[in-house]
Design a protein that fits this description.
The protein has one helix spanning about 5-35, and strands at about 35-40, 55, 60, 65-70, 80, 110, 115-120, 130-135. By secondary structure, the protein is α/β, with parallel strands linked by helices. The strands form two sheets. Strands 2-1-4-6 form a four-stranded mixed sheet, with no helix packed on it. A four-stranded mixed sheet has the order 3-8-7-5, with no helix packed on it. The structure holds copper (II) ion.
């Protein structure tokens, strides 16, 4: 192996090492700086209106991630918007575009909130199930 090749390989290894260190550092920083908040889709939620999601409303900080878990025995979805006639429906998040995939029992859906505001959401299968995310 020539000196030139050796230097090229060594330099590539250093770059890879630096890159992995940077990525590792970033991951640690973001995990400590930002939170995860859990919301339950409660058992029997389809007839529980604004009690179908718990807690409701859910208060989070900019940069936080909300994880919804379906704790019911039937499938649901979480879609941003005030209802199926809202022109902004699904603009912020949609667990199930065109009802696919549905959140079956025990399944989760995550969304990270990057701007402050109040975001209503509902279940596309049971539109009377409504909730709100308050991002500050
Ligand atoms: Cu539902």
């Amino acid at each position: 192996m020539s000196t030139k090749q050796t230097i090229a390989i060594f330099s590539a290894l250093l770059t890879a090492l630096a890159l992995s260190t940077t990525l590792g550092g970033f991951a640690v920083t973001s995990a400590s700086a930002q939170g995860e908040t859990k919301v339950s889709i409660v058992s029997g939620g389809s007839t529980m209106a604004d009690k179908a999601f718990s807690p409701n409303p859910v208060n989070v900080k900019v940069g936080d991630t909300v994880t919804w878990t379906n704790d019911d025995s039937q499938p649901h979805t979480v879609v941003s918007g005030s209802g199926s006639s809202d022109p902004n429906m699904g603009k912020d998040f949609n667990s199930s575009p065109n009802f696919n995939p549905l959140l079956t029992p025990k399944q989760t859906f995550q969304h990270k909130f990057t701007t402050a505001g109040e975001i209503p959401y509902f279940c596309a299968l049971h539109p009377t199930m409504v909730g709100k995310v308050v991002v500050s």
